[in-house]
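Dear colleagues,

For the upcoming journal club I promised to circulate an example of a predicted protein-ligand complex. I picked one with zinc ion because it came up in last month's discussion. The inputs are reproduced below in full, followed by the predicted structure.
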Amino acid sequence: MRKRLAHTPDFLYNKNEYRPNRSSALHVFVLVVLLLGAASIWAIFRCSSRIAASAHVTPPTLVIDAGHGGIDGGAISADGTKESDINLAVALRLESIVRFCGQKTVMTRWDDSKKTDILSYSEHEELRDRADLVNKTENAVLISIHQNCYPTAQPRGAQVLYSSYGDSDRLGKRIQELLVAQLDPQNRRLAAPAPSELYLTAHARCPAVLVECGFMSNNFEVLKLKENGYQNALALLIAAAYLEYISGNSLL
Ligand SMILES: [Zn+2]
């Protein structure tokens, strides 16, 4: 997201900024190992059998949208990090995990190579193309990955926005719950309805959520968002929530 979301209360942040250290890195590493193990076990013993059992229903396909890309870098942090790069890194990890668990996936982009011509680029056309891809995917569920931004440096913390379609709120609230509980217990933000001006969630005719993983305007949060281990943890937790959502089982 480039702009502050109008519905995001100013007080919903705390001042306990993140400082990378050995124990936090170890925590993330252990979390990743545990979650990967849990996801593998769950995939083998529960996921495939339950979903296969309902073979008469078209299996869900997770459409993963790595927000922005190409000439559109999204929000840019003080150290020059592009939101689009963080979005893609998390999205690629999410795709790998969900596909590893035997589920179908579609990506709106796989790299940063498209849309590099400023003269021909149209943000509206790009978003329309992505919405078309979502809406032509049978039994789709959309997860769009973005980062937040604010005019001041203090606001921080992940926040999930969910569309008004179907039970999108169930998926969105579970992602928020897992991100807060496993990665950032001091984050007081709540999952919230997506504003109507968010094109993809507004135009997707399927369950859809947009995950703001953190704030590009908060230098300490950017340090986290750039870490491989933190990106893995974000992807694993989002994947776990998705697998729970499509199966009705509790994974974590
Ligand atoms: Zn964005």
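Two points we might discuss: The chain has one domain: 22-247. Residues 1, 67-68, 74, 83, 146 surround zinc ion (CB under 6 Å).

See you all on Thursday,
B. R.
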